[in-house]
Amino acid sequence: MIPAAFDYARAASADEALSLLAEYGEDAKILAGGHSLLPLMKLRLAAPSVLIDVGRVADLAYIRDGGDHVAVGALTRHHDVATSALLGAEVPLIPFVAGLVGDPQVRHRGTIGGSIAHGDPASDLPAAVLALGASLVVRGPAGERVVPAGEFFKGFLETAIGADELLIEIRLPKMDGAGWSYQKFNRRAQDWAIVGVAAVGAAAGGGVALVNMASTPVRASAVEAARAAGASAADAAGEASAGLDPPGDLNASPEFRRHLASVLVRRALEEVDAR
Q1: Angle at 184 between CA 194 and CA 167, to 5 degrees
Q2: What is the tens place of the pLDDT at every residue in 216-239?
Q3: Distance between CA atoms of 105 and 161, rounded to whole angstroms?
Q4: What kind and span of H or E run contains 137?
Q5: How many domains, the chain?
Q6: pTM to 2 decimal places
Q7: Strand partners, 172
Q8: CATH code, 95
Q9: Host H or E run for residue 220
């Protein structure tokens, strides 16, 4: 389908983007790589009156050592995340997951900030930052605020970013050599995950997060509690869907997703332990 008509503005800086958001209000949407927003517009699930293009704001594309974390600018392309030597050494889960996003064309255009700000429960990177306990830096008229990943995803395609705010940075805690794993099941390469699991070892907080098991990216808190109490990978995996209401669609029933979550969590935890 063809999107509804819209106006277009290109921002040269983050401050200009915020100024344009203030000018156009809730009718405006931020455009980065476009791989999250444009499909929604084509389906008429989103119909912004103005697109504010931040794709060329160079000062929001970087990967920097922040001491106890690695700071990644929101406009950093998936390809640059996937091939970063710094991330590979300090937060290896993230470049691995970024390398699974779409195909090379998507990875050279799409941005980590766009993926996270979109908040799709079927997306790979939101679950990875959730498992790590990352922090998201949001800038608005009142200045910057830091939102823990656990408080960032509010509902289906809804995040803590206000209508007049912009995600500018992702702060990824260094993993200190902890084991990690990312498992996902899809029918074809490059498809959205029917279910996915991101997990890290105790040295990195022991987080386990699930893809496509709720209306948002979600922590598998029952699995984390079982592991903290000394449960084996197999026993902890039995708690994978505890307290969750997975969706049913053309790809999988809720029951099938619960089964997949248990299988994939066990595989992920076993790989975490083996690293």
Answers
A1: 85
A2: 999 999 999 999 999 999 999 999
A3: 27
A4: strand 135-140
A5: 3
A6: 0.92
A7: 70
A8: 3.30.465.10
A9: none
Residue 116's domain comprises 58-173
What 3-state class would DSSP assign to 152? coil
| Residue at which a domain ends, from 173, 189, 204 | 173
End residue of a domain, out of 173, 201, 231: 173
Non-local CB neighbours of 36 within 8 Å, separated by 6+ positions: 110, 114, 115, 117, 118, 120
Mean pLDDT for 195-216 is: 97
Taking the C-alpha atoms of residue 115 and residue 101, their distance in angstroms, rounded to an integer, is 10
d(CA 122, CA 205): 23
Token look-up 């893809």 returns: 211
Q: How many CB atoms lie within 10 A of CB 209?
A: 28
On whether both 121 and 209 belong to a single domain, the answer is no
Give first-to-last CA distance, the chain, whole Å. Answer: 46
Mean pLDDT across 247-252: 94
Question: Among 103-107, 144-148, 199-203, 266-270, where is mean pLDDT lowest?
Answer: 103-107
Question: Across the strands, what pairs with 77?
Answer: 111
Domain with residue 42: its CATH number is: 3.30.43.10
Output the pLDDT for position 51.
Answer: 85
Give which of 76, 56, 162 is closest to 125, Cα–Cα: 76
* Together in a domain, 68 and 99: yes
3-class secondary structure, 61: coil
